[in-house]
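Proteins fold reproducibly. Take a sample protein:
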Amino acid sequence: MNSGKVYLVGAGPGDPKLITLRGIECLQIADVVIYDFLVNQVLLDLYAPLAEKIYGGKMKGEQEKRQAEINQQMIDCTRAGQTVVRLKGGDPFVFGRGGDEALVLAEAGIDFEIVPGITSAIAVPAYAGIPLTMRDYASSFAVVTGHSAALDSTSPIGWEKIAMGIDTIVILMGIGHLDEITRRLIENGRSPQTPTTLVRYGTTPEQETIEGTLADITQKAEGADFQSPAVIIVGEVNHLRKHLKWFEQRPLFGRKILVTRARSQSASFVSKLLSKGAMVLASPMIEIVPIDQNLAFDQSIDGLSDYGWVVFTSTNSVEIFYRKLREKGKDSRSFGCVKICAVGKKTTEALHQVGIFPDFVPSESSGATIAKEIKNIAHQRILVPRSRIGRPELLDGLRERQAIVDDIPIYDTVEVEREERNEILEKLKKGDIDMVTFTSSSTAENFFAILDEPRSAMKNVRIAVIGQSTARAVMTHGLKCDIIADQPLIENLTDNIVEFYRLNN
């Protein structure tokens, strides 16, 4: 067996969108991901859903033992022919022990690649609205470790030179030694009135900031019980924060929103919520599974030219239909003169991706509207490849207009394993979820199935749904929907959530 390869990948400082394109590529091909404490879970869910995940965090006092275990895991996996991503917060070579790990791999003869990441030393000040350099404020900056080793008598760090020779000082891993760090800087000549900012969980919706001076920042941090992980920024550039703090102004900043959509479909929704500043908790309640050994589906594909219309009611139906076409060695030419209907915008876009422009799209995205508006269907054979639990309005409406309808279920919507059940319940109990979103009736039903008393558990939680049928599924449990999207599209649901919080801030 060929040996595998290790990619030492910087995940960035927290915001999942700050990983590089190369980093995403590595995650997508990974068999194993060994990840650190500060790595955003969204990266694992979106880009490495099938990879084996190994937590590589280290407890205080066991760092060296755990590091040796991680080193051995990387070696063992690659020698077994696996592709390993060692996913590290920030940049692997900026206080990330990436150099140590690379040396171990090199000595073991393991093929490896370094994929740089955006370090928190750069990104966190930027998200706090603090430029590290700025004309008239700062022409130099330094990044320094605040670890205890940097503060003892044998430390190679020249604090006396840093204190007076550098305009902006960024200190990582220093919150636990904040008092000693500020004292060192003052003793070595830095003014006690130098503006100083602490930023915790920077670049994420949990970002917290404390502003002060070298003289009082320790007292302020203690009063707020300010804990790591955090970045310390010392220098006059901190004055600019009041003008430049853009990130905390996002409309959903700090809102904790649970997405229950199927993992294969959630990426776009998660991305849109993140871009508005929300803290997104992804906990899919359903999974889309093609129906195996589906003779009726096979026969409909083989006899595709006998139909007058094919009606696609979801992006899932398009994707699974075309997967079957390819399995049979066919492509879009198989449609011939058959006309194509798409239920709405997203389904239309999915068809465009495979080179098909639908002949008909209804004025509203619903099966009932298709049945009402579609033309010239009397005595026509119509193929409807869809979910096994699809609603009857489309089929009934087409048959009322004398169409000959083949309703072919091609996929199931199934409940996923509930490994995160206890975590969700705990977050609801603690008030750590502000809003739950539902994009289908099945996601709502599966979610409420894990709650013993839905009305009690959801008492202080807002509910947002994508359409009326989903709203009805929620209301059967005695709950009301705070938001019903004005159109059944993810874009509209996102916009409606933003508007809701704007009006109810």
Remarks:
- Residues 256-285+416-503 form a domain with the Rossmann fold fold (CATH 3.40.50.10090).
- The chain has a mean pLDDT of 90.
